[in-house]
Design a protein that fits this description.
By secondary structure, the chain is α+β, with helices and mostly antiparallel strands. It contains 2 helices and 5 strands. Strands 1-2-3-5-4 form a 5-stranded antiparallel β-sheet, with helices on one face.
Length: 114
């Protein structure tokens, strides 16, 4: 998937400020941060969106949310709260077609985001 921005980050051909990496998941700071803490958590496996998640992806999704939980604790978000966001499809605001979860925190978050 050479045209996928996040696959390039996984491969190391596109630089990122990594905060976590294991054999299945990578997390890095969002370059367009919307909060003091704004981390993107993605699987290394290319999955375009939530719409392509099958029953066989349960362990991977569990790993992703375990990493999110770990990062929330490490960045001091667990006590006061944080937001996890996944945009799905064009009208859902998805701009990179590689499933990813935004971990946002470090300030009071309003709805709608802004």
């Amino acid at each position: 998937m050479t045209e996928c921005l996040f696959c390039g980050i996984v491969e190391g051909s596109i630089p990122s400020e990594k905060v976590y990496e294991d054999e299945h998941v990578i997390a890095f700071k969002d370059i367009h941060a919307q909060a003091p803490v704004h981390i993107l958590v993605i699987p290394k496996k290319h999955i375009p969106s939530v719409q392509q998640i099958g029953e066989g992806e349960g362990m991977l999704l569990g790993r992703i949310f375990s990493v999110i939980n770990r990062l929330a604790k490490e960045h001091g978000l667990s006590e006061r709260g944080y937001r996890i966001v996944n945009n799905c499809g064009e009208e859902g605001g998805q701009t990179v077609h590689h499933i990813h979860f935004h971990l946002l925190g470090g300030r009071a978050l309003t709805w709608p985001p802004g």
